[in-house]
TrEMBL record, chain A:
Belongs to the cyclin family. Cyclin C subfamily. Gene3D superfamilies: Cyclin-like (1.10.472.10). GO terms for cellular component: nucleus. Keywords: Cell cycle, Cyclin. The lineage of its organism: Eukaryota, Metazoa, Ecdysozoa, Nematoda, Chromadorea. It comes from the Eukaryota. GO terms for molecular function: cyclin-dependent protein serine/threonine kinase regulator activity. This is Cyclin-H. Residues 73-155 form the Cyclin N-terminal domain.
From TrEMBL, chain B:
GO terms for molecular function: cyclin-dependent protein serine/threonine kinase activator activity; zinc ion binding. It is found in: Nucleus. This is RING-type domain-containing protein. One of its GO terms (cellular component) is transcription factor TFIIH holo complex. The lineage of its organism: Eukaryota, Metazoa, Ecdysozoa, Nematoda, Chromadorea. Keywords: Coiled coil, Metal-binding, Nucleus, Zinc, Zinc-finger. It comes from the Eukaryota. Residues 4-48 form the RING-type domain. Gene3D superfamilies: Zinc/RING finger domain, C3HC4 (zinc finger).
Length: 330, 310
């Protein structure tokens, strides 16, 4: 149930909060290396917006990976995996991690969570880069780290089942429509696919996203918002636009209006923020990530040298601090 | 848990269980002793030794072996009561004590019983004088304990005395003011002296009576308290006590906050024709407990939950 889920409590934000969080982790990361960085390397330390773009290009690649995956996965796996990915990069910085591997680990974990069972061997067979054994090793190593970063909040509510629910409701209640409702499915699914490459999963309840997908599909069929309004009226139980209803249940009408506004808002959000990743952009990101990863190694050795020269005060940089683990076995 | 090996009654089934033990060290409950040894002598139910009824004593320690040992030790102490100054040096005294421990061990574990008893008898005859003389003598430790007890008793007596004198003084003080008041009244007022004295006497008697009553009441209360405590101890039960307290539980059905349009109920899902729009459940799914109405209501529920969360 979404209303009591960790998704609502911990992982749903306002757009402003989201931007602030991204800014913060970006600044923190920059601060960490400020003392050893050289001016010409500064260009590799990108802004939060560029980082987000980098995430998008990975997401784009991941969605293509998911569609090519055999056996064919059900869509909620995609949604879960990308939700994990988006959440993880509210804590991690893309430059600091092997972002591509994190995405693969997200998919592997999401398959377990969504009961799309596949072995790690079966999983790495679908990857077309790197040595399968090495890939498997890295994914399995990343998996517990990923879960830790997600604070073990692993249940993700995707809009696919609510979408089916809305569609069923429409088919049952809207008997006077003069077209086949199934025709909107294709467009709605592409809308959800686009929504996956935006912040929408971090901003709205899945039931609302699903309704936005329905409305998008209706618009694609050349229909207006009036069908959505009619549908909501029937759902809430408002009589045909009568003045009595307006006076008797003003809060019902308010809900209707608010829902319509919210649906429009989600559709606009997707329309504005979904920008297909171009081939050029992908290449740029690839090379940038490659250079960044090389630089990171260099910076870490520099930081360590500075620490040694400074008389080894404080904690050794780059050292992972082991936290005591509570175990039932002890 | 203490339990009679013969009749299997134990502390829980019989609250007044008393375990008895004889020289062979095999415990029996009091009821069994009364039954088996009705003719004053009989055989032990474990080792078949001939025992006498008056040889039975109450078992004090849970472990019969320890009980047996303390009993024998106490018995033997009456004969082996020589003190340090009966020996020429410390080593001889040590040897004597060691020998005593060996004898106790032999008796407890019943090894070489005949030889041991013979040795004890020989020892008794040999040291008859010393033993008799020592019966009245105390050794250092006993003396110390006696001293301590005496000191304590004296201390208590002193404190009591002190308190009593204190109380008396107080009483005297009030009595003095009273008499002074009466004297003043006798001198100043013009009421007849007999009337005043009568009144005062009456007051005094009333006061005494009151005090007496108070004391009796206190006594009665103490007695009652003791009795209730005793009764509680006897009736102590390990059963769960059913307490009837507080208001009765009233079940209130949980409210599910959907924050969305109302859910159709199970019969509505069927009657409104929702089931026409969902895949029909196959036979093996139905066998597993799934119905298409279930899947339908799940999708409908997820479509509604938090739809109006803005």
């Amino acid at each position: 149930m979404y209303a009591t889920s960790t998704q609502k409590r911990e992982w749903t934000y306002t757009p402003e909060k989201l931007a602030a969080m991204r800014m913060e982790i970006n600044l923190k990361f920059r601060e960490k290396y400020e003392s050893v960085i050289q001016p010409e390397e500064l260009s590799l330390f990108v802004t939060p917006e560029e980082e987000l773009r980098m995430q998008r290009s990975i997401e784009d690649a991941a969605l293509r990976f998911a569609d090519k995956f055999r056996p064919h996965m059900w869509p909620s796996v995609k949604w879960t995996a990308l939700a994990f990915f988006k959440r993880a990069f509210l804590v991690w910085v893309p430059s600091d991690t092997s972002i591509r591997m994190v995405m693969m680990a997200c998919f592997y974990l999401a398959m377990k969570i969504d009961e799309f069972y596949i072995t790690i061997d079966g999983f790495v067979q679908n990857m077309n880069v790197g040595d399968p054994r090495q890939n498997a090793e890295r994914i399995l190593k990343l998996e517990p780290e990923l879960m830790k970063v997600l604070n073990y909040n692993l249940t993700v509510h995707s809009p696919y089942r609510p979408f089916e629910g809305h569609l069923m409701d429409m088919k049952t209640r809207m008997l006077l429509l003069n077209f086949d409702l199934e025709s909107i499915r294709l467009d709605s699914m592409s809308f959800l696919q686009q929504a996956l490459q935006t912040d929408v999963p971090l901003l709205y309840p899945p039931a609302q996203i699903a309704l936005a997908a329905i409305n998008y599909g209706l618009h694609a069929q050349g229909k207006s918002n009036e069908i959505l309004r009619e549908f909501l009226r029937k759902l809430i139980g408002i009589e045909e636009d009568s003045w009595d209803a307006r006076n008797d249940h003003p809060q019902d009408l308010e809900k209707l209006e608010k829902t319509v506004t919210r649906v429009d808002q989600i559709m606009k959000e997707v329309e504005r923020n979904f920008v297909a990743v171009t081939e050029q952009e992908r290449e740029n990101h690839k090379s940038q990530l490659f250079r960044m990863q090389n630089l990171m190694k260099e910076l870490d050795t520099r930081r360590k040298a500075a620490w040694e020269a400074g008389g080894r005060i404080g904690q050794e940089p780059g050292l992972v601090q082991e936290e005591p683990v509570d175990s039932d076995d002890e | 848990m203490r339990e009679c090996k013969k009749c299997k009654s134990n502390e829980y089934t019989n609250k007044q269980l008393v375990m008895m033990i004889n020289e062979c060290g095999h415990p029996l409950c009091k009821n069994c002793v009364d039954n088996i040894f009705a003719l004053n002598s009989g055989n032990c139910h474990v080792c078949n030794r001939v025992l006498r009824k008056n040889g039975f004593r109450e078992q004090i320690y849970d472990d019969p072996l320890i009980d047996k040992e303390t009993f024998l030790r106490r018995k033997l102490r009456k004969i082996y009561n020589l003190k340090l100054d009966d020996f020429e040096n410390l080593k001889e005294f040590g040897d004597y004590q060691e020998r005593f421990e060996t004898l106790v061990y032999n008796l407890v574990f019943e090894t070489n019983v005949n030889e041991t008893n013979a040795e004890i008898q020989a020892f008794e005859e040999k040291h008859k004088e010393k033993i008799d003389r020592n019966k009245r003598r105390l050794d250092e430790d006993q003396k110390w304990v006696e001293d301590q007890l005496r000191d304590e008793r004296q201390m208590k007596a002193r404190i009591n005395e002190h308190m009593e004198t204190d109380a008396k003084e107080k009483e005297n003080a009030t009595a003095v003011t009273d008499t002074r008041k009466i004297m003043d009244e006798l001198r100043d007022s013009n009421v007849a002296a007999e009337v005043i004295l009568d009144r005062e006497r009456k007051k005094q008697i009333e006061k005494e009576l009151e005090e007496k009553e108070e004391q009796e009441k206190r006594k009665r209360r103490n007695k009652e308290m003791l009795q209730t405590r005793k009764r509680a101890a006897e009736n102590m039960s390990f059963n769960t006590v059913i307490r009837i307290a507080g208001r009765a539980y009233v079940h209130q059905p949980l409210e599910l906050v959907i924050n969305g349009p109302p859910m159709p109920n199970a019969s509505q899902i069927e009657s409104m024709g929702y089931l026409a729009h969902i895949r029909h459940a196959s036979a093996d799914l139905i066998a597993g407990g799934y119905t298409s109405a279930l899947g339908c209501s799940r999708a409908l529920f997820e479509a509604r939950i938090d739809l109006f969360s803005f």
